[in-house]
Amino acid sequence: MIAAQDLHTEFQFPQEPESQLSSDTDLEEPDGKNARTGRGMAAKKGKKATGDKGKGGGAGRVSGVGWINGHHKENGMENMTLFEVVKMGKSATQSVVDDWIEAYKHDRDVALLDLINFFIQCCGCKGAVSGEMFRHMQNSEIIRKMTEEFDEDSGDYPLTLSGPQWKKFRISFCDFIAVLVRQCQYSIIYDEYMMDTVISLLTGLSDSQVRAFRHTSTLAAMKLMTALVNVALNLSINMDNTQRQYEAERNKVVAKRANDRLELLLQKRKELQENQDEIENMMNAIFKGVFIHRYRDAIAEIRAICIEEIGVWMKLYSDAFLNDSYLKYVGWTMHDKQGEVRLKCLTALQSLYFNRELGARLELFTSRFKDRIVSMTLDKEYDVAVQAIKLLTLVLQSSDEVLTAEDCESVYHLVYSAHRPIAVAAGEFLFKKLFSHRGPEEEGLPRRGRQSLNGSLIKTTVFFFLESELHEHGAYLVDSLWECGSELLKDWETMISLLLDEPMSGEEALTDRQETALVEIMLCALRQACECHPPVGRGTGKRVLTAKEKKTQLDDRTRITEMFAVALPLLLAKYCVDIDKVTNLLQIPKYFDLDIYTTGRLEKHLDALLRQIWEVVDKHTDTEVLEACSTTYRYLCNEEFTIFNRVDIARSQLLDELVDKFSRLVEDFLQEGEEPDEDDAYQVLSTLKKISAFHNAHDLSKWDLFTSNYRLLNTGLQNGDMPEQIVIYTMQCTHYIILWHLAKVSEGSTLKGDMVTMRKQMRAFCLMCQRYLSSINTAVKEQAFTILCDLMLIFSHQIMSSGREHLEPLVYTPDMSLQAELLNFILDHVFIDQDDDNNSTDGQQDDEASKIEALHKRRNLLAAYCKLIIYNVVEINTGADIFKQYMRYYNDYGDIIKETMSKTRQIDKIQCAKTLVLSLQKLFNEMLSELGFNFDRSSSAFCGIKELARRFSLTFGLDQMKTREAIAMLHKDGIEFAFKERSPQGEGGPPLNLAFLDILSEFSSKLIRQDKRTVHMYLERFMTFQMALQREDCWLPLISYRNSLQVGGDDDTMSVISGISSRGSTVRSKKSKSATATKRKLPDEENSCSSSDAIWMNREQNAQTPVMMHSPHLTSTVQRDPKKMRPEDSYTGAYTLPTEQHQPLTPQQQQQHHHQAAIDYNTQVTWMLTQRQQAEACQQQERVSMQYAKMRNHMQQAIRRGSGLMEDDEEPIVEDVMMSSEDINEGMDFDTMDIDLPASKNRRERTELKPDYFDPSSIMDDSVLNVSMF
C-alpha cells in the first residue's frame, strides 16, 4: 500500500535562514488550495545561517507570540515550559498547539527546538538540546549526548510514574500529538522540515537502549502515526469527492462544461494526490522505522502500544491497513508470552469483527488464526480468556460456518467455570449459538406456554444440561446464562406447563430424566431471581443491590409466589414418589412472600400444599426428602405472618401422629421374650428417621422422647443385636433432644430442676456413647465418636462465656480414660491407608467416588477431634500422636494438622513445643523398636523423622523473640530424652537415644545467641569428660548438635571443655569497645541470661541426671577487652548461669565433686593446653587472611576513586532492546532487562549494536515459529 522512500534514522536537520512562511493561518480549507504554501521554502542545504536565534529553549522571541524564551506565555507573563503545560493540564491543548504554531511561523528552528526538548523532557531526561547542538550535531549524536546526561535516580519516568497527575499526563501527551498534527495538517506538515525532523528524532529515540527513551518515543510515534492516518483518511475522502466533481463536470455537454473549473478540479486533485503521497511516505517511515522493530520489543508495554495502535489504524483506514500485510503482526503477537500484549491483540480484533463489513474481509485471517483464538479461551490470564470468548462470539455473529462443532464445544463447557466473567462470556456465546436463530416456522408461535418459542428454547437448555453430564452444577449454568437469557429463564409459566400439561399430538414428551433436569433448572432460576447473587464458589460474596435491582427482586418474588402457590401442590401431587423432584420442589416455598397467601386469598392453596407435604412425609423415608419437608415447615411456621396458626396446627398434628406411632412401636419392639422381626425393625427405623429429621429443625421437647431413645440404646448395648441404623438414628435424635433442652436452659426461662435433669441426661448419654465406642460396628462407632466430640465441645468450660455463668453445673470434663478412647479411635480409624484391594474394572469410577467419600468422612472425624485440642477440652499433649502423622499423611490431612498446630501455639507456645518434641520422641521410639539400637542414621525412617523436625521448625516463623521460651523448652526436653536411657553397649558407650540430638539440631537455628549458650550449658550437665573426647561415628549426633549450638554465635567462641573447667568463661568481642560501653552493657546481658534464659534450668538444678555424673559448677565472668584477656582464658566459652550457681562451693560439695571426677587433673591440663595452642594457630591464620582481604578491598576502592568513576558520573539504567533465543532459554524476565554499564563501555557498545533482526522466539510461543503466514 505505502510505497515511498524511508527516512534515515541519522537524519541531519535541514538548515536555512528564517523561513518566510505565509502569514495566514494554518487552518485552511480542506480542499488544499493553499496546502503547498511552504513547500518550496523548505531548507535542503544542510547548514543553518549563523544568525539563527536561540539556544536551549529559543531566545529572543517576539513578545506578541505566546512563547518567550521557550516558556508559555499567559496574560503577558512568562509561565512555564511546554512540558510543564502539558503535564499540569492548566491550558487547553488546542490553545497550546495554536501558540506553538504561531511561534513556528515566526521562527521555525526555535519552535522546533522547543518541540524536541518537549519530547526529551517527556522521557524523564533532565538534559536539554541546545541551539548549538541542534545546528551542528547529527540526530544520533544528540541522542547519545542525552543518554549520557540522563540523570536517572530510580528508573521511573513520566509514563511509568503512578498517581492521578501522571495518568492525566499520558492522556495529555497523546492529545497534544493528535491536536498538533490536526492543526498542522493543511500546510506545516508538508513543509518537509517539521515532520521529517520529528519522525527522525522519534525513530532514533525508539532505537535507544534507555527504556525511558524507547517507551516514550514509541508511544509518541504510534500516536503520531494514528494522527497521520486520520489526515490520510480525510485526504482520501477529499480526493474521492474531487474525483466525483471532476467526472460530473466532464460528463456535461460541451456547451455547459466549464473548462476553468475542470482545470481547477484537476489541479486540486493533483495537489491532494501529492499530499497523499507525502503522508504515505511519513506513515511508511514511522511503520518501518518504529513499528517493525518495537512490536517485538523486550518490554511488554511497548509491544502492547504497537498492537493497540495498529488495531486503530485498521479500523480507521481499513482500505489501506486491513489486509494480510498488517494483520499478520496481530496474528503473530497473539502468541506473545505476556498477557497484556495478548489482551491488546484480542481487543484490536474485536473492534474489527464487530463491524460486519470489516469482518467479511477477515476470512483468510480467521481461517489461519482461528485455532489460536479458540485455544486462548483457556488462557492462564482470566482477562485474556474472557476477551477471547467475546471475540469468538463476534466471529460467530459474522459467520455461522467458521467455527466447527469442536470449536464450539471447547467454549460450551466454560459455562461451568468458577471464574464468573469467563462463565458469563461463555454463556453469551452459548446463548447466541443455540438460542438466537429463529426459523420462519417459529415466527407465529405464542409468547408463553408449552407451544411457545421459549418452550423449545427451554427444552434445548435441558438437553444441553444433560449432555454436559454436570447435573450438580445447574446453578452455575443458570448464573452463566442469567445476564443474556434472564427473560428465558424467568419464563416459569412455560416451565410449569412443560411439567404439568400433556404433550400435544405429534409432540415428543419429556423423559423422566429430562423432567428432573427441568425441575432443577427451574429451582436454580428461582434462587437466582430472589437472591440476586452468584452461587457458592463463584463470586466474592453478596453485593449491594441498586434501587432498580431491588424493585426487580421484589416483583419477581411476588410473581413467583402467585404462580407457584397454585402450581406447587399440583407438582408435588404428580411427582410425589420421585425423590429427586420432590426434594427440589420442596425448596421452592422458601422463596415465597408469605403475606401473599393472605392478601391474595390463596389459603386453600396453602392447605393443599400442607396436605401434599403430609403425603410426602408418610410415603418417604429418604433423609434428604424428610429434611426438605422439615425445612419447609420451619419456613412456613413464622409467627410474623398470619398463616402461622394454620401451619402450626398442621405441624402439631403430624408430629403427634409420628410420636404416638413411635412410642407404640418401641414398646412392641422391646417386649421381653419376643425377638423382633425385620418388619418391626423397619417400622421403628422409618419412624425414627422422620422424628430425627423434624427434631433437627423443630423443638419436640413437649414430647418426652429421651426415655424411649435411652431404652433403645441400652437394650442394643446389652443384647448386641440392635440394627445399626436404629442405633445411629437414635443417637442422632437423642443428641437433638440434649441440644434443644440446652437452648431452653440457656434462655433462663426454665426451673432449677430442669437443669438437674438435663445434667443427668447429658452425662448418661455421654457415658452411653462412650460404651458404644467399643462396638464392633464401624458406623455406630463413628456416630458415637462424632456426637461425643460435639457434646464435649458444647459442654466445655466455654459454655459459661458471654454472661452464662449459671450454666456452670453443666460443664462436662472428660476423664483420662475417655480421652484415651477417643485418641485410640482416631489412630485406628483415621490414620489408615487406602484399601486398594477392591478395585474392579467395571466399577472403577464408583470405587474412586467411594474412596473420596471415605476420605471426606475421615477428615471430618479428625477435624472433630482436633477441635477438642484447639479449644483445650482435652490435653494438648494428646496431639503428639496427631502431629507425628504430619509427613506420612500430608496429602490427606496436612492442612488440618498444620492448622491445629497453629491454633495450639496461639493457646500455649511452651506446651505446643513440648507436644511437638513429644511426637518426635514417639516416632524415635517406634523406630528403635523396629530397627534396634544399631540402626543406620541414613535410613529412610530416621531421615523421615529429621524431615518432620525440619517442617516443625519452619512452623515457628521468623520472629525468634516470640518463640524464645518455647524453643528453649523444646531443646530441654529433647536433651533430657537423649540422655534418659543408659547405653545398651555398657559403660563407655553412647546413650540409647543419643541419635535424637541429630533430630533436635533442626531446631537450633530458632535459638537466639544467648539461648544457644544456655542450652549448650544445659547439655554439658549431662556430659562426661570422656564424651567430649569421643570422635567415633556413634557420637556424631552429639558433635553435630554441639556445633549447631555454636554456629551463629557472633564470633563468641565456645570451648570444648568449658563444662569441665572451673575457671571463669569470657566473651571475646569482635571489635574493641570502650570501657564505658562495656560497663553499660554488662548488667543487661547478665540479667537477660541469668534470669530469663535459664529459668527452666533452675527447676532442674537439684534433679539427678540419669546415667551421667554431675557436671562441675561454672562461674560467669565479666566481658574483657581482648587485649587484657589472660592467655589461658582466651579460648573458653562464655555462659551465664542462674544466680544460685554463683554461690561458692562448700568443702563438702568440693569433696563430692572431687570424687565424681574420674580423670586425672594433669591429663586434663595437658589436653587443654594442646587444644589452646591449636585454636590460637587457627585464629592467627584467620586474622592474616582477614587483613589481606581488607587491604585488597581498600586498594580496589582507591583505584576506583583514582579513575574518577564517581556516583555523579554513572550511566543511566539502560537495557537490551531485543531478546535473543539464549535469553529465553535462560528464563529471562522480559519486564526487567535493565543493565548498568560504565559510560565509556556504553558508548562503545552502542556503536557496535547489531542490526535489529526479527527474532520471534524471544517473545512468542514455540507454536508460531514453525508456521508460515498466508
Please write out the topology.
Elements: E1 67-68, E2 71-74, E3 77-81, H1 82-88, H2 93-106, H3 108-122, H4 131-136, H5 139-148, H6 164-184, H7 194-206, H8 211-250, H9 259-294, H10 300-316, H11 318-321, H12 324-333, H13 339-353, H14 356-359, H15 363-375, H16 382-398, H17 405-412, H18 420-435, H19 453-467, H20 474-489, H21 492-500, H22 512-531, H23 547-574, H24 579-585, H25 595-599, H26 603-619, H27 623-636, H28 644-669, H29 678-697, H30 706-719, H31 724-747, H32 752-772, H33 778-794, H34 816-829, H35 844-870, H36 880-883, H37 890-907, H38 909-931, H39 940-954, H40 964-978, H41 996-1000, H42 1009-1020, H43 1025-1029, H44 1036-1046, H45 1075-1093, H46 1095-1099, H47 1147-1156, H48 1161-1203, E4 1214-1215, H49 1221-1225, E5 1234-1235, H50 1239-1247
Antiparallel strand pairs: 1-2, 2-3, 4-5
Explained architecture:
It is found in: Nucleus; Chromosome; Chromosome, Centromere. Pfam families: HEAT_SCC3-SA, SCD, STAG. With 1270 residues, this protein is mainly alpha-helical. Among the domains are: 406-438 and 446-543, no CATH class; 633-833 and 848-859, Leucine-rich Repeat Variant; 908-1046, no CATH class. Strand 1 and strand 2 (71-74) form a beta hairpin. Helix 22 runs parallel beside helix 24 (579-585) and helix 31 runs antiparallel to helix 32 (752-772). It is flat, with a radius of gyration of 44 Å. Residues 1-78, 836-842, 1049-1166 and 1198-1270 have low confidence and may be disordered.
